[in-house]
Amino acid sequence: MADGMRAAVVLGSGGARGYAHIGALEVLAERGFEVVSVAGTSMGALVGGVAAAGKLDEYTEWARSLTQREVWRLLDLNIVSPGGAIRAERIITKVGEILDGATIESLPIPYTAVATDINARREVWFQRGPVEHAIRASIAIPGVITPAVINGRVLVDGGLINPIPIEPTAAASADLTVAVSLSGMRTSGGQTTPVKESSEPVPREEWTTRLRRSAAEVLESERVRALTSRFGGHARDLDGDAPLSASAAVGVAQTPSEALVMGQSDLGLVDLLNMSFETMSALISRYRMASNPPDVLVTVPSNAVRTLDFHRAAEMIELGRQLTTEALEHAGY
User: Full-prediction pTM beyond 0.85?
Assistant: First the structure.
């Protein structure tokens, strides 16, 4: 146990995987850590904000109750919006009700939400003002969720520049810094070094197996299957009617052109944007933490759940608990 130890907590960006932050915070509390500072980006800003306000239990109860149908209603889709397909105002309204008008400067735990000023190309740290406004600015995934405009700044997801914002906690009087990254390596593993490839077309049989394997990892990750198996369930299709087979969903493309079309239709624009954003975030995180590493790093695989799977709170909270316990024990806490 770590009774009395003071922890600065840093919560990274990653959409619905951010429910793992709840599990991490639960484990820290159970082990006797006192959280003395919270900084977060995107979903990390949301969970960190409600935690700093002392409203985590209320938010968790609501998140666990969400069904997929309710999630799509809350996402407030608007396909004609030029700034993003999701307005997210209904989510922020609910979060605002939970926060009950809290301001950052009045929170019992110092809190920083990180967003990106897309025009100035710089980070914005929100350390004063309404918590819900800071959260709204921080969660605006470029091309997916419409930007927020605050005091003339056009603000998007803080993960664009700082996916794991350790720097705002530097002044905290803490015994250790615990960071939770949602951009870990996909559970199937693989190298991060460049791959040398030819642009010359090759026989179909030389690339279809690789395509099938790569697409299967995207559509139905090994981590999702392990999680659902642990909880006695199965990965299911969008209607919840039957188990989703990755091999059946992927199929086999006949030509490179068909492969491109198939990939676009299977993944969808939001998935492709998110995967691009996550690839960039993982690289930025690696470089930034190299110069400013946390004492304890909890790493959630980037394919644990899809970015918009906000109906899967229970399993991500449990995964966050498991990974945080392992990370703390590995670090000797």
Answer: no
